[in-house]
């Protein structure tokens, strides 16, 4: 078995007969690379069966259980792909009670695991005779901002495929929620803001790397209210924005990391007891990040106006300012130390 990384997806080529002993080796090998997966910001693990001799032997049930266990151990979603069409229903049945997903090829895996890799709104042709499964896939694609055309039978699929050109065609696919996460709560953000969430994330990473020289990366994100279970000693800056997209952007820095980041940016010592200076510094980080985001939005012909930042020294006060609404909570790291972003309506 060999592996590669493509668009933050860890891809394993299972290029030999599927056996329980090899499945165990696969599990141990990937788990042993947990540090690398975190460093690379891996968003999904994809097991390609393109070169596997068969997808019908009994060891496939064991492989699916191993991938379920792997997802739980690493908190990373897993999927099987590149299977033969005639094996799809068999794999679908075996994986029905698990969080293991089925993607016809690696492009579909990237589409769901790392949608920010696709820089435009896609038009997707979906073919699935299983209406419940098709509705689930269509719903997930719509949340990502893609336009979905659904074909319900072979003849309908042929006609729609001939009628226009699509960015991607999806068949023989099963999408599920990861087993490690609860059912997703309702997210009240607009479709336009959801589609453009990567702008905030990528801009924060690039901006902080540029102004501090420290390594920055996104770790994970989830739909939830403001997370009050963060260190008590934090500096929080929040900016409301309105226009073609609207909401509130929160930047949350543990105090110690805020001091280190300011020292890296300024190239001089910062007094850790000077709360006013540290608060002003985090507010300036927020200003720079949102200013860069505004520039990117303008290139997309999206008009956004950011208000001046407000700062908080208490998570509880910031929680009240967030109105308790659901949003996207994003765990980040700067120089391998955690900080956070929260975007809500």
UniProtKB/TrEMBL annotation:
Which keywords are on file for this protein? Answer: Chemotaxis
**TM segments?**
none
Q: Where is the Chemotaxis phosphatase CheX-like domain?
A: 235-332
Q: Which BP terms does GO give this entry? A: chemotaxis
Q: Which Pfam families match?
A: CheX
Asked if the keyword Hydrolase belongs to this entry, the reply reads no
Q: Which InterPro entries match?
A: CheC-like_sf, CheX-like_dom
Q: Which named protein is this?
A: Chemotaxis phosphatase CheX-like domain-containing protein
Question: Organism, per UniProt?
Answer: Sulfurospirillum cavolei
